[in-house]
Task: inverse folding
């Protein structure tokens, strides 16, 4: 029995943490809010020098050949500082998808380029007025000289400024199909949307006569939507790690504040009203962490209970994040309500994740289906 | 990360499992019926402990020379898992086996060890723990029971409360004040008190579920001797803490029970029908079950993480307070949901209840005690805040 990260994994965490502390933690996100994208890109390049993006790419393609669990400490550290960027989309969706379904050529091209920081991929899934469900994918391709032409609009595509490509689901002869399309391809226009969480910038992407060649199509012989859904397992396991990191930072700063802020001649942390709130926050953090570690372990080992493990981690973590981010403001009192203090950044990020790449309502349904309790209606199971 | 068990651990599990199959009370696997009559219950439970101890299954963590198996922490975990799996009868001498015995081995004199330990193991002498008092619950150092020296005797007066198994007990691990110390945890002494004497009166406390686990113990000129003092005179605080530290895997049993109770709740929702449909066909029921599922898994996995740490550092850490808080709160929630999800049927009791027994109803009522006994949830939260998060202590302490 050993339910902990390995020494190597913890060592990697130390490097990443030191690097992010040296860059003043949430200042990275604040620079991004202030449109200082050059700075953000510099920080990301530095993380790549540490090997963060190469980590789960096979050695044959210039990666480090490590797995899902090795991403855990890195993503926790990213979450701690509310790191902007498409690391989840790239490392937890596109890379696992290419590893499993990419052709040899695609692996050679895309994985190598991702490892060498030439490609960073975001995900362009949602369409205006539609949901993340299969029927929500309506953008249709037409055939053109042996290639495909895409026309339509994708919305709420994150961090296009920090990405080079987008993974885009669309319909080709009714079937959901996936492609990797460069954001600077002919016919792609990106319009920045106004954002509630400015540490992640969403954009509307319009595609007009965008040419997609056969070699850009991923998992061509598979059911595209099923592949997409499968990739949400690695995504959500990694997402739960990011959230755990953010929650850890919240509990840390809230405890620190409760220790120094004095009222009626004593630190507010001496009052049980504060103490008990913080103890409950700590418990939520550690429970999210346990579920998250297990989810990532379940993916790495192809455990039978992988789906329910991942959905549990996702739902618990997103809900707990929202809750303790709110508690954090209450503990900080008036100062917590100001723009100056980071509390609000955590609240906003918590709302970003809640319904991104699937709503929690969807995930409850999926989790219950995965548990497949006998006696549920046939209608539920289908 | 590695959740597997070693070959040796699996062999241990198999050995215990087959022993249980052959030695559990007759018919136990089919239905777990304890005698209702208290006297019969006492006989039944003592017999069960004797059966366990005869095969060295009563106190596996004890050294072999005292009749244990020198079990590793992992073997203890497996032991709890297997005992929960067959819903084994409770250990009537839980206090003796898990707390008093190990404390005697650590602090007791050779004479005390020889006199008490074999009888603790066999169940011949059942022990209770005389800590809590009406005015010293969570605040143990506030004990008011006094022990005054008269000649070669200590005369003990006072009242203990919430004393589990006192109605079966032959001896009590008693905390009493022997002098007025500079601080309130000074001047306390621990006695190994004989319960079978005129100065000791046990009165039952009937719980809200109608059962009787706890007692009040009145001490009216009860007598103890110097040989029945454990540790040093006036230095009992250290002994009380040592005793509490020995309860190292108690939470594990609760965590494994919660896991089992959850799957029983799923079965209940599958097997109970309304208008011809199982309750689990309702979307709301499934969602609420899943919310419990996440917490129950969280409780188990938190426990495994803390266990991992314990295996590495060699002793239990303060994280145990998080496990205790979470497992007791989730258990309470689970039984509350179990009543709620049964709908109007949740109001029936005993053989009229949905499952043919009042298992859910009585455990629901019992669960209120779980966030109080063994350190209230409030105390656990204080511990977490002060010792894990580094917040300042309450002004009063």
Result:
């Amino acid at each position: 029995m050993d339910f902990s990260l390995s020494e190597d994994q913890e060592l990697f965490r130390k490097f990443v943490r030191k690097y992010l502390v040296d860059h003043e933690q949430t200042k990275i996100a604040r620079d991004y809010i202030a449109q200082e994208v050059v700075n953000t890109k510099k920080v990301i390049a530095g993380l790549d020098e540490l090997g963060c993006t190469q980590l789960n790419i096979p050695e044959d393609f210039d990666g480090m050949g490590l797995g899902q669990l090795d991403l855990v400490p890195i993503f926790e550290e990213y979450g701690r500082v509310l790191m902007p960027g498409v690391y989840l989309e790239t490392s937890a969706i596109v890379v696992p998808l290419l590893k499993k379904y990419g052709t040899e050529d695609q692996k050679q091209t895309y994985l190598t380029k991702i490892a060498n920081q030439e490609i960073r991929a975001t995900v362009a899934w949602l369409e205006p007025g539609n949901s993340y469900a299969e029927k929500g994918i309506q953008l249709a391709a037409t055939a053109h000289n042996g290639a495909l032409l895409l026309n339509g609009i994708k919305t709420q595509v994150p961090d296009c400024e920090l990405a080079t490509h987008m993974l885009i689901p669309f319909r080709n002869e009714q079937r959901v199909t996936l492609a990797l399309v460069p954001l600077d391809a002919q016919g792609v226009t990106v319009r920045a949307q106004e954002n509630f969480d400015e540490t992640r910038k969403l954009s509307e992407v319009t595609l007009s006569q965008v040419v997609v060649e056969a070699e850009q199509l991923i998992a061509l012989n598979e059911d595209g939507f099923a592949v997409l859904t499968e990739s949400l397992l690695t995504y959500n396991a990694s997402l739960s790690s990011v959230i755990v990191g953010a929650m850890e930072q919240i509990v840390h700063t809230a405890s620190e504040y409760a220790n120094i802020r004095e009222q009626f001649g004593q630190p507010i942390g001496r009052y049980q009203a504060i103490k008990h709130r913080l103890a409950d926050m700590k418990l939520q953090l550690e429970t999210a962490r346990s579920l998250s570690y297990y989810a990532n372990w379940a993916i790495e080992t192809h455990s039978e209970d992988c789906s329910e493990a991942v959905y549990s981690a996702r739902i618990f973590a997103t809900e707990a994040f929202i809750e303790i981010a709110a508690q954090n403001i209450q503990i900080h009192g008036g100062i917590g309500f100001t723009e100056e203090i980071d509390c609000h950044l955590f609240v906003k990020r918590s709302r970003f994740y809640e319904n991104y790449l699937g709503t929690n309502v969807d995930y409850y349904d999926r989790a219950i289906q995965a548990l497949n309790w006998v006696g549920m209606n046939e209608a539920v199971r289908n | 990360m590695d959740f597997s068990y070693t070959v040796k651990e699996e062999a241990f599990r198999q050995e215990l499992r087959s022993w249980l199959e052959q030695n559990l009370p007759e018919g136990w696997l089919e239905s777990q019926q304890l005698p209702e009559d208290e006297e019969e219950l006492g006989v039944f439970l003592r017999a069960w402990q004797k059966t366990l101890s005869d095969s060295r299954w009563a106190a596996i963590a004890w050294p072999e020379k005292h009749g244990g198996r020198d079990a590793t922490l992992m073997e203890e975990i497996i032991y709890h898992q297997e005992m929960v799996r067959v819903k084994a009868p409770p250990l009537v001498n839980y206090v003796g086996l898990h707390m008093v015995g190990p404390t005697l081995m650590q602090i007791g004199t050779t004479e005390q060890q020889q006199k008490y330990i074999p009888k603790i193991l066999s169940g011949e002498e059942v022990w209770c723990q005389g800590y809590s008092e009406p005015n010293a619950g969570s605040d143990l150092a506030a004990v008011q029971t006094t022990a005054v020296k008269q000649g070669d005797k200590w005369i003990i007066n006072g009242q203990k409360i919430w004393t589990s198994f006192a109605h079966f007990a032959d001896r009590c691990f008693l905390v009493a004040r022997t002098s007025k110390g500079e601080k309130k945890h000074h001047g306390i002494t621990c006695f190994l008190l004989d319960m079978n004497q005129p100065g000791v009166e046990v009165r039952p406390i009937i719980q809200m579920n109608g059962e009787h686990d706890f007692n009040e113990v009145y001490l009216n000129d009860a007598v103890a001797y110097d040989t029945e003092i454990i540790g040093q005179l006036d230095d009992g605080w250290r002994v009380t803490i040592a005793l509490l530290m020995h309860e190292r895997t108690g939470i594990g049993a609760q965590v494994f029970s919660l896991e089992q109770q959850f799957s029983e709740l799923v079965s209940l929702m599958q097997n109970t029908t309304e208008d011809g449909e199982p309750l689990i066909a309702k979307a709301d029921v499934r969602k609420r079950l899943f919310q419990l599922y996440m917490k129950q898994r969280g409780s188990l996995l938190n426990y495994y993480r803390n266990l991992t740490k314990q295996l590495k550092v060699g002793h239990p850490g303060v994280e145990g307070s998080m496990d205790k808080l979470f497992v007791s709160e989730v258990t309470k929630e689970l039984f509350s949901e179990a009543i709620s999800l049964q709908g109007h049927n949740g109001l029936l009791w005993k053989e009229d209840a949905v499952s043919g027994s009042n298992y859910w109803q009585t455990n629901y009522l019992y669960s209120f005690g779980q966030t109080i006994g063994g350190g209230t949830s409030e105390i656990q939260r204080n511990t977490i805040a002060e010792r894990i998060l580094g917040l300042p202590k309450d002004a009063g302490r």
